[in-house]
Amino acid sequence: MTAAALAVFDAALERAVAGAPGTLTVRHRSGAEHAVDTAAWCRGRLPGDLGLLDRCQGPTLDVGCGPGRLTYALNRRGHPALGIDISAAAVRLARARGATVLRRDVFGPLPGEGRWRHVLLADGNIGIGGDPVRLLRRCRELLAPDGLVHVELAPPDTPSWSGAARITAVGGAAGEPFRWAVLAAGDLPATAAAAGGLPVVRTWTEAGRWFATLGG
Questions:
Q1: DSSP code of 129?
Q2: Of 33, 82, 85, 212, which has the highest C-beta tally within 10 A?
Q3: Name one GO biological process term (predicted).
């Protein structure tokens, strides 16, 4: 994400934690849009989180952890979970919550590479970097040999897209282009196959959200 786009995201998080609406819109050049509710991310738990948390029984890396609700919940359960995010605001808010978080890029050097039992890509974070195949390959490098990736996906009737997009806050101007992606549940098998070595082992829905587990 570019510095300008990250500044839009950071500002929305700051407003959200102060109680103001924090909706962001990510627009692809094709016209497709993806709404991001940063205010929801600042809550303690979202409907649908429980099944995701229950599947993380061991060391977990929460990629794009945002304000850290999932990392913190796993820490509270006694699991060695680490959140990473490139947003300074997200890292500060997550640490204030009590989560164990580092400001890191998933494509850069990370602690525990090749040893994580679980990797989380929740809240649409399969879009990080604008190339889900590349991101899943990176997750495979981070996992232990028997590790699992847990991915949140867009509903099956959502168009998948990737590439240049712009992020806009309510009432604000669009930020500079950055790379992002949206992956619909129905398009996951082909994407996972292209990534190699991460078969889809289960899928589930909860509270209107769509998830899948890969690896194993």
A1: G
A2: 85
A3: methylation
